[in-house]
Amino acid sequence: MSGFSLSARPTLKLLQKSDVERIHEASLKLLEEVGVMVYNDRALKLLENAGAEVDSRKKIALIPQNLAKESLGKAPSTIRLYSQDGEHDRVLEKDRVTYNPGSAALFFLDSKTGEIRRPLTRDLTDLVRLADALEHIQAQSTALVVSDVPDEIADRYRLFIVLKNSPKPIITGTFSIDGFYDMKRMLEVVAGGEKEAARKPRAIFDTCPSAPLKWSEVTSQNLLDCAKYHIPAEIIPMPQLGATGPVTLAGSLVQHNTEFLSGLVMAQLTTPGAPVIYGGSPTTLDMRYGTARLGAIETMMLGCSYAQIGKYYNLPTHMYLGLSDTKIIDAQCGFESGIAIVLGALAGINVISGPGMLNFENCQSLEKLVIDNTVCGMALRLVEGVKVTDETLAIDLIRKVGPGGMFLAEKHTLEWFRKERFIPSELIDRKELNAWKTEGSKSTIQRAKEIVDMTLEKHKPTPLPPEIGNDLDGIMKGIRKAHA
Questions:
Q1: In which region does residue 359 sit, left (phi positive, over 0), alpha (psi from -120 to 50) or beta (all else)?
Q2: Which pTM was predicted?
Q3: Which residues are bridge partners to 98 per DSSP?
Q4: How many structural domains is the chain composed of?
């Protein structure tokens, strides 16, 4: 097409290529010279058989550089996440962004009382149904650890609730070794068998090393099991600057990358080509209060920086962004979450977990999820960039309308105003003053509450086929009975 130009995707890069290469080289040296502690005999044996120097007494493996380099060449650069209805599949690659609610919160902000309390099944069900309805929350998460089921089955139960109430892809994780196998069975039931579940993965499992440079028995086994069954694993290092990681951003990036590479090696030794996502949830320590600063700009910078490293490795990326450290929905909540959501999109992070979260990654809010959904939509519009074509330049139209004219009734305006502009929900107030007063002078939070109530009343998620739903109920019934 004459005069056509692809829009330039706006991007954020905090590291030079030479910086990324230095971090990469430093990580390889640490892997080989310092190593990682792995409390899993099976994983240590895998590493030893592949050429790592293993001290079985100290549980430390020194991983040769060539082993890490070979593993980087085996992991896939693209991961497709499937949905139950086929309409919400997500492709994780390059700069494509997927937003999902933050995961595993132990608390819930009660919409009616304003109280932060332990969540119940009905809270998780409402959150899942709400996320299912929100356009820019493209994937689900097992967002709440509910308190009205036994702790031993909480990981299985939250996946059960998501599968029953939404067809969207899922980011999840387990708290135990045997929990993984129960959750795998659930995913196989809804997929139509083990082979289908491996061929069309519906869920990503988070696997988290412990900073600094350590893998527990549970998380390392979860990683190996994900690789064995070809379930995408999100490796999530969590260095805390000044506490469990160096106080400098560059130093914690080196440690973060070293921990990730150690997990990548174990996954690829288990199954060459196992799908792995370069993830993370780093924080900075607030020395005044001894708290983790999830909403701090340095935390956001860490995530955007290590995403560059993941892209250097040609791997899908993940980060916890869009959270706030505040305990209520207020101005701090807005600017911490808003800045992070936009920066994550500019950095092209493939999976961004965190919308809806408050209180240091430990509380979910329905109203905040509605607000964050709009911010996600704005961020996604931003990274579309400016499309420059003969039609969008509108030279002939400007000539036609001329000085002093009006564009409102032109056919070009009618054709393009929805394509070119992000049109938010009624959450956003853009009425003139008197109209706003007439409608009740409502705040953003009041409007968010109304959207939550209306959505939960009217939205009906696509149900599972009856036979699949019954099989899933049977699995959950068996799990409950086994842990009664």
A1: left
A2: 0.95
A3: 351
A4: 3
